Amino acid sequence: MARTLDITTSDPVCPVCDRPIPKGVPQSAHHLIPKLKGGKGGPTVLLHHICHREIHASLTEAELARDYRTVDALRAHPRLAKFATWVRKRPPGFLSKIPGGMRKR
C-alpha cells in the first residue's frame, strides 16, 4: 500500500502503520538493532507505543537483530503487516493490550 502524507501537518508519521503521531499520543523510539544485540547508540525510529509493543510481541531480540533491521523488513513481516492493516483504521491515540506478551530474548 502506498504511503500518503498530509503535508499540512508537522506531526511525525509512524513507519509501521502510517498514522500521524501527534503530541500527547503514547510513542516510543525503536532501536532498529536491539541494544542487547549491539545496537546501543544505533539508529532508532519513532513509533506509536502500540506499534512498538507489537514488534516486541512478534519478534525476539535475535530475530530483530538478524532479519528485521529495517523498517521495510518490519513492514514485510506477516504478523506486523496484518497488525498495521488493522491498527491503521484506528485513531492515532488508540491503545490496546497486545495479546501474548513480549517474546523471549
Automatic annotation (TrEMBL):
Record protein name field: HNH endonuclease
